[in-house]
Amino acid sequence: MAGHKVAHATLKGPSVVKELIIGLTLGLAAGGLWKMHHWNEQRKTRTFYDLLERGEISVVAAEE
């Protein structure tokens, strides 16, 4: 009964390729989210100026 061996994960150093792939994936995901946010803000701004140009909205407060 003596001498039971338990399988333990051996600790290795960092894998450069794995870290590069993870970093690249996270960077592309964050960049994609940022671009989607930026495009949404551009669309809102473009819509605002289009409505302003057509006279449908005004930036001057209406007098009562």
Automatic annotation (TrEMBL):
UniProt entry keywords in alphabetical sequence: Membrane, Mitochondrion, Mitochondrion inner membrane, Transmembrane, Transmembrane helix
Top-level taxon: Eukaryota
Subcellular locations according to the entry: Mitochondrion inner membrane
Chain segments annotated as transmembrane: 20-36
One GO CC term on file: mitochondrial inner membrane
Family: Belongs to the cytochrome c oxidase subunit 5C family.
Function: This protein is one of the nuclear-coded polypeptide chains of cytochrome c oxidase, the terminal oxidase in mitochondrial electron transport.
UniProt name for this protein: Cytochrome c oxidase subunit 5C
Annotated source species: Arabidopsis lyrata subsp. lyrata
